[in-house]
Amino acid sequence: MAQIVRPDTRYQQSYLAAHDEFDGAHRDGDGEWEQAADPATGFEGYSFTRRGLEEKDEFIRFVRARRAEELPGNPRPSGYVPCTFLWIVEGDEYLGSIALRHELTHFLLEQGGHIGYSIRPTARRQGHASTALRQVLELAGEMGMGRVLITCDEDNAASRTMIERAGGRYEDSRAGRRRYWVTTIATDRPTGAVIG
């Protein structure tokens, strides 16, 4: 069964194979591979390449960068918010990514929402995104978020159905994106118990 985990070096080869499957397509929920330094915030910037991530030390640096994004006090580019990046895995296989943004900027309120996700092409239509979304809704509840905004393209029937099945209540559409508010899931687990 699929589960969400924090980025980890054990998934290096599977992550890179999935990257190749996406073949340059946008991957919501996976973050950027390149961010320019921002002297105004003290963010040092980073740049990763497909070839570079084949090296163990570079992949370790990549995983550390992803994990650092969730810490509120860490420097980040202007206009960016703390974000918990998670990988959807089954055993040792990377299936996709899902991200939980801790706050909403104006752009995220209009278009991006709190949660973004992508599933590698060979793992789609198997329920992995629904499973990961449920787990992220639990994590959001543990973090004290009562509800989250999730968006999808108007023509993405699969995402629309998944969000509605998770309890999403349609608010409106803006610039081709459907906007749904979803109540998070209360659990009795300690904060952070959902993921490893």
From TrEMBL:
SUPFAM superfamilies: Acyl-CoA N-acyltransferases (Nat) (SSF55729). Its EC number is 2.3.1.-. It is an enzyme of class 2 (transferase). The keyword Transferase applies. InterPro entries: Acyl_CoA_acyltransferase, GNAT_dom. GO terms for molecular function: acyltransferase activity. Keywords: Acyltransferase, Transferase. Residues 47-186 form the N-acetyltransferase domain. Coiled coil: none annotated. PANTHER family: ACETYLTRANSFERASE. This is GNAT family N-acetyltransferase.
